[in-house]
């Protein structure tokens, strides 16, 4: 983006609306001012205001309820919006599937180390439940995928770094290899479960060294498996259509 170019009026209004949401401590489900009030407050035309609101709706900041008594309602953006933006950027760069694994290999060991020092009791419980559920339903690939995603998601947020939390949420949305034809047979699921248990034990024991090394080995094992069994998939370009 050219930083010297004046920002579009609709974007400036969108920023003001977001600042007002924060300033007034609006919560999910709260209504914003009706259109006639916003037009007066922001001193813009109806077309500009509606463009601002449509942009915020696309970003997940608000929803627009139609009809009498409707209008903008406060929502909470999630990582799906970040995932979509990342996918579009990666698609236009023709980035391969392996680039996501390389990113995870670089970041997730650090997340595991931080989580071992910062995790709270609730997230530790969630992590334990994820491991237990995967073990109890190891024959069910659907449950395996669900608990695998939950495990990595909890660790990212337990790192205490919000950027890591949203980034891993987005990467996990992109990385679901099943949409590219990647299969996880039961013996492979068992290997993942064993590694999850070792990572959980290290985090529960506040052992950052072991947590970091176990996560590094976990991502490396997954990478080796995909390189061996699905080499063409690893080289496939990421496209928007691969996310369900």
TrEMBL record:
Top-level lineage group: Bacteria
Pfam families membership: FCD (PF07729), GntR (PF00392)
Keyword Transcription regulation in record: yes
Domain HTH gntR-type: 7-77
Keyword hit for Iron-sulfur: no
Keywords per UniProt: DNA-binding, Transcription, Transcription regulation
Protein name, UniProt field: FadR/GntR family transcriptional regulator
């Amino acid at each position: 983006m050219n930083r010297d170019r004046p920002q579009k009026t609709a974007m400036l209004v969108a920023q003001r609306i977001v600042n007002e949401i924060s300033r007034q401590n609006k919560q999910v489900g709260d209504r914003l001012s009706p259109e006639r009030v916003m037009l007066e407050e922001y001193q813009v035309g109806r077309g500009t205001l509606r463009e601002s609101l449509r942009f915020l709706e696309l970003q997940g900041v608000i929803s627009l309820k139609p009809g009498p008594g409707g209008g903008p309602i406060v929502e909470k953006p999630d990582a799906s919006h970040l995932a979509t933006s990342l996918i579009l950027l990666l698609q236009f760069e023709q980035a391969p599937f392996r680039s996501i694994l390389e990113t995870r290999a670089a970041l997730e060991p650090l997340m595991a180390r931080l989580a071992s020092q910062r995790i709270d009791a609730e997230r530790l419980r969630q992590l334990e439940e994820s491991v237990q559920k995967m073990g109890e339903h190891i024959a069910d690939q659907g449950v395996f995928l669900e608990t695998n995603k939950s495990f990595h998601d909890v660790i990212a947020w337990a790192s205490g770094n919000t950027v890591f939390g949203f980034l891993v949420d987005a990467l996990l949305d992109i990385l679901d290899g099943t949409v590219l034809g990647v299969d996880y047979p039961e013996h492979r699921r068992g290997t993942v479960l064993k590694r999850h248990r070792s990572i959980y034990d290290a985090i529960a024991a506040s052992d950052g060294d072991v947590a970091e090394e176990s996560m590094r080995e976990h991502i490396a094992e997954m990478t080796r498996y995909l390189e061996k069994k699905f080499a063409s998939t690893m080289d496939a370009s990421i496209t928007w259509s691969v996310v369900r």
